[in-house]
């Protein structure tokens, strides 16, 4: 996985206005439960834990949503609980409905959330699977910079590896995630590690054992 950061004062992204797009904070558990196919109790628990929901609509039709965590959050794939400091936000659980994909809503939703939360926060974090190219592109367009890789080391322990020249920012990501920062290579496919598969036992040359990564990416366990 990759973790990216945007800091107040970074140059804002150049995003042309999208006709009919409106983004607003949503405080109704019933509305978010219906959108996400969850119970109102689940959504209310998120609100109670300090998570804030935002919905993007196009011409009045709900098209996408996402969440901003203000206190704690989890990265389930890494089994990590994040401790979000004062003046920080962790952005997560973004979904664009199939009927509205390809319009450029995602980066504009991210930008709107950053602007809305900037009155209280100056650092914005987001994590994503690098093989999810659509998410990666949207996050870059919204002005975020990848500062570290999150995966498993050769012993199968979660760790963080800074991008070149991003050691200072990565130290903050290490504090956020509770992961130690290392210099050696991490497993290219964290899914294989989570599934207990090894390169020797499960990975054909040039193909990941779980078939999730692109075929030319080999698994490292």
Q: Would you kindly provide a written description of the structure presented here, covering whatever features stand out?
A:
By secondary structure, the chain is α+β, with helices and mostly antiparallel strands. The protein folds into two domains: 2-186, 3-Layer(aba) Sandwich (Aminopeptidase); 187-221, no CATH class. The chain has helices spanning 29-36, 40-48, 105-117, 133-141, 167-177, 190-194, 199-202, and strands at 2-7, 21-26, 51-58, 61-69, 72-75, 80-83, 88-96, 123-128, 145-152, 158-162. The strands form two sheets. Strands 2-3-4-7-8-1-9-10 form an eight-stranded mixed beta sheet, with helices on both faces. A two-stranded antiparallel ribbon has the order 5-6. A hairpin with a 5-residue loop joins strand 9 (145-152) and strand 10. It is globular. The chain starts with a strand and ends in a 19-residue tail after the last helix.
Q: What gross morphology would you assign?
A: globular
**Chain-averaged pLDDT:** 87
Task: State the separation between the terminal residues, measured CA to CA.
Answer: 15 Å
Radius of gyration: 18 Å
Strand order of the largest sheet: 2-3-4-7-8-1-9-10
CATH fold assignment of the largest domain: Aminopeptidase
Please mark out the parts with pLDDT under 50 across 5 or more consecutive residues, or reply none.
Answer: 197-207, 211-221
Whole-number count of domains:
2
CATH superfamily of the largest domain: Gcn5-related N-acetyltransferase (GNAT)
The topology string of helices and strands comes to EEHHEEEEEHEHEEHHH
Count of helical stretches: 7
What is the CATH class name of the largest domain? Answer: Alpha Beta
> At CATH's second level, what is the architecture of the largest domain?
3-Layer(aba) Sandwich
Amount of helix: 25-40%
> Which structural class matches the secondary elements?
alpha+beta
Instruction: Please report which band the strand proportion falls in: under 5%, 5-15%, 15-25%, 25-35%, 35-45% or over 45%.
Output: 25-35%
Biggest sheet: strands, sense, closure?
8 strands, mixed
Question: What's the β-strand tally?
Answer: 10
């Amino acid at each position: 996985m990759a973790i990216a950061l945007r800091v107040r004062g970074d140059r804002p992204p150049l995003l042309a206005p999208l006709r009919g797009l409106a983004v607003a904070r949503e405080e109704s558990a019933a509305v978010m439960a219906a959108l996400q196919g969850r119970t109102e109790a689940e959504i209310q628990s998120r609100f109670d834990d300090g998570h804030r929901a935002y919905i993007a609509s196009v011409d009045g039709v709900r098209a996408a949503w996402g969440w901003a965590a203000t206190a704690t959050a989890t990265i389930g794939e890494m089994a990590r609980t994040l401790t979000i400091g004062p003046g920080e936000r962790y952005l997560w659980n973004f979904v664009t409905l199939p009927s509205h994909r390809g319009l450029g809503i995602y980066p504009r939703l991210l930008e709107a959330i950053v602007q809305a939360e900037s009155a209280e926060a100056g650092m914005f974090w987001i994590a994503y699977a690098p093989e999810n190219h659509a998410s990666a592109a949207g996050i870059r367009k919204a002005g975020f910079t990848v500062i570290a890789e999150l995966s498993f080391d050769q012993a199968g322990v979660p760790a963080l590896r800074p991008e070149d020249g991003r050691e200072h920012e990565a130290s903050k990501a290490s504090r956020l995630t509770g992961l130690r920062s290392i210099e050696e290579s991490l497993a290219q496919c964290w899914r294989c590690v989570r599934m207990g598969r090894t390169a020797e036992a499960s990975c054909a040359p040039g193909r990941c054992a779980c078939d999730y990564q692109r075929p030319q990416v080999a698994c490292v366990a």
